[in-house]
Every structure is written in structure tokens, then in C-alpha cells.
């Protein structure tokens, strides 16, 4: 009996440090950063420098995995259902909360729900920007609205999919301006931008990151922006609020999420790592160059932001209603 007790006690002494080391070692292998859109969109632009900074910090690979489709729902759902061990993360956009509500409106069971994901940290929160081709006839927002009123349904705009951030922002503007625009959904912000640059569509509500370089290169013209104040890099572009559209305010944010059952110790490690990662000079340079300055929020600050913004966006989706 005493021998069995000694063996059990010895096993406990041996196993306990092993368990502690396993927790302390996170991450001990590659950590996937899922982006629910094709390359080139806002989530991708934020995810890549964040993953690079984490790789330098952790000395482990952090590959960005683009898993697009269904306006972001496929990639979001894949992380919601992933093993909750901290090795599959999501760089989500504000559409995260809108897509399940859109499914309900259209009589479909949501492929995921927001309570399946734990908010880890907000990285950026930028207003979207209304951009058109530089050779278009519209030099001002007033030009655009006047033409749209003359030709209802004739002006086309692209988006990252039905009920995506880019769709909802344009729907908010069109409703406030009393104009009818033709929505052409694509499978992500990158393809939506390509459609505008190629002339397939005529307008786009873009995140500032993807739009800034195209505006600087003279390929696109920015007519207005959805923020309460003018965004860095777009200081010469008026806001919709300045133009009298008081209810047109929208932000495309990017934040890191994990499956909700991820252990608290791993979530804490992730938050601490991301707090350190956003101080990385390479990350700061990359996001500044993309026109997406860091707006880091973690813990209760991000959870509150996410809850309040999600409620506002769900109401916006409900106003759009069913999309055939």
C-alpha cells in the first residue's frame, strides 16, 4: 500500500511540472492566422504584418491562411469550429457580427454565431472610403449623388459579398442620399478592388489600406469617407457627416479572435503577445504605409467595443433586409 502511494505521489511530482511546462511553452508549433477573404483586402493587409511580428516574438511560424467565400462566413465558421487550443486564430472584420444576422433574415441557419468566438485584441479601426476610378466623371460627392439621382440603378459598386462591411457601408450611404445603386458582390475586398480598377464596376466603399496606394498612384479618386473625422492619408477628403449625412458613419475594424473554449491562460498569453507585437517597428511601418494606423484595444475595452459595434451593425443589416 505504501509502495503504491509512493508511486502515485512520485507520478504526481513528475507530471505536474510537465503540465506546467506545456502551458508555459505556448506556442510550441505553428499558429494559423485565418483571414476569411482572398488576399488584398483589409483583413489580409492587417493580418500579414501582425503574423510577421508574432513570428519574430514567438520564433514559431504564423502562416496567414486565406479562406474566403460567402462574404467571410466560411473562414469565420472554420475558426469557430476549430480545436480551441490557441493554434487557430481569426483576423476578423466588422462583418463578423453581420453575417449570422443576414443568414437569419434569409431563412438560413447561421454557419456560426459570435458567441463561439472570443475577442482577443482589436488591431485597427478605420473608416471606409468611397472611391471611384480617376477617369470617372465624378470629381466630388455632389457629382456622384446628382448623377445617381438622374440614372437610378445605373451606377454599379462592388463589395466583398452580400452583407459584408463594404456592402453595408454603401447601403447606409445610398439610403441616406435617397439614391439607387446597383450592388455587385464579389468574394472579398481584393476582388472587389480589382473589379473597380478594371472598370467592371464604378464605385467601391474600401478600407483605407487597400485604397490609399491606388489613390496616391492616381488610379482612383476618393470622394468621401465614413468616419467622424478625416482619416490619415485622406486629409483632403470630406466625411459624409461634413456633407450633411448625419447618420452615415461606418468603420471597418480588424481584430483577432480565438475559439471561445480556448483556455484562459492561452487567451491571456495571446493578449500579452499582441500587446507586444503592436510595438514592433516593422508592423507599425507596414500599417502606417497602408493607411491603417494601430488602434489597439484588449480585454474589456475590446469586448465592450465589439459588443456595441456589433449591435449597431446588426441593426443596419436588419434595415437592408432580405437580399435576393
Automatic annotation (TrEMBL):
Q: Which Gene3D superfamilies match?
A: Bordetella uptake gene, domain 1, Periplasmic binding protein-like II
* Superkingdom of source: Bacteria
This one is known as Tat pathway signal protein
Q: Which family does it belong to?
A: Belongs to the UPF0065 (bug) family.
SUPFAM superfamilies to which the protein is assigned, alphabetical: Periplasmic binding protein-like II
Q: PANTHER family from the entry?
A: BLR1237 PROTEIN (PTHR42928:SF5), TRICARBOXYLATE-BINDING PROTEIN (PTHR42928)
Q: What is the lineage of its organism?
A: Bacteria, Pseudomonadati, Pseudomonadota, Alphaproteobacteria, Acetobacterales
Q: Which organism is it from?
A: Neoroseomonas lacus
